[in-house]
Amino acid sequence: MVNRPHEIGFDETGFWVKHRRIVYGRFDYQWTPELDGVELLFQGRKFGEICGPEEIQADLKEFGLPRRVCEVATIVLGTMLESLLQGLPEEARHDRVWTRLRMSGCEQFCPDARR
To answer: Sign (positive/negative) of CA torsion 105, 110, 114, 115?
Structure first.
């Protein structure tokens, strides 16, 4: 990560959210043992699960994260999983993340945001 107050850092399937110069994460996902859904992870601990478009459960409350970090992490996770299921390559997935963050008013986390 570079020296910016807000940004996203990707590492394979996971990522970190830097908010006000504090890094939160690692956010990640893994397939359920039955391969019928996706578990959402924060620092290796499950905080939610996606069983299908109509069945999504997630709760980061126990971690005491800032509201903006939860918002950004949710956008990034949802976009990354949607993009993966569509078979998009890594660069296209990241581009889609930046677009969704801008659309949600979180442009300060995008790499081309002013420092």
So the answer is: positive
On whether residue 69 sits in a domain, the answer given is: yes
| Cα dihedral 110/41/29/70 (nearest 10) | -30
pLDDT surpassing 80 at residue 115:
no
Tokens 């992870």 belong to residue: 41
- Is the residue at 86 inside a domain? yes
35 vs 107, which has greater pLDDT?
107
Could you tell me if 36 and 49 are in contact, meaning their C-beta atoms sit under 8 angstroms apart?
A: no
pLDDT tens digit sequence for 59-82: 999 999 999 999 999 999 989 988
Number of domains in the chain: 1
In-domain check, residue 15: yes
Expressed as residue numbers, the domain containing 84 is 7-107
